[in-house]
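Kindly inspect this one:
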Amino acid sequence: MAAAKSNTNWFAIGVSAAVVVVLVALGAVVVLLNNQATAPGVAPESAIVNQETGAISFGDGEDEVDTYVDFMCPICGDFESQYGEQLQTAAANGDITLNVHPVSILDRYSQNTKYSTRAAGAMYCVAEKAPDAALDFFNLLFEQQPAENTPGLSDDELATLAEQAGAGAAADCIADGTYMSFVGDQTEKHEIQGTPTVEVNGKRLDLAKGEISEMEKLLG
């Protein structure tokens, strides 16, 4: 009996091999995207920024006051109206070190523009590109603070405020959203649930229980 002729279907084998290659490639893309999504944000490089804690520091006093602020938070605006000048004066006089942490917990109140994250990222841009202008920019962000449930300021408007403060060089950084991921990382890392959050010499104060007095004592 003659041997049966081979009927190997090379087309089917080729298709199967191509499918395997595509699946492997897709798997690699998924892994890459997941890694990018979970990778830590780029930290700003500035003499006044602690890349690990995210603090933008003013003054060199022995006692330290850390404030965690969201630039859309109305209570943060009230806090700055009441204590901002005193804190900044104490830092300028060398009585305290004021560590400002721009964070983002209120993006949901800016009509999908992520204003809290963008404004905090802009603060880091200014701290990196023009450190001497950082405090003026910080104050302008609260002077021009948008109301909740509005789009907030546009990137162009943030850049205009930066230029007004003397940090025109930060415009591209603001437009690119360079430090938005870093803002998210720091917000999560410090477990910020509400703003303002205040710490004195590493102790987180319970403002609802009147512990703000511990900060007030440092201010005289």
Q: What stands out?
A: The chain has one domain: 56-218. The longest helix spans residues 10-38.
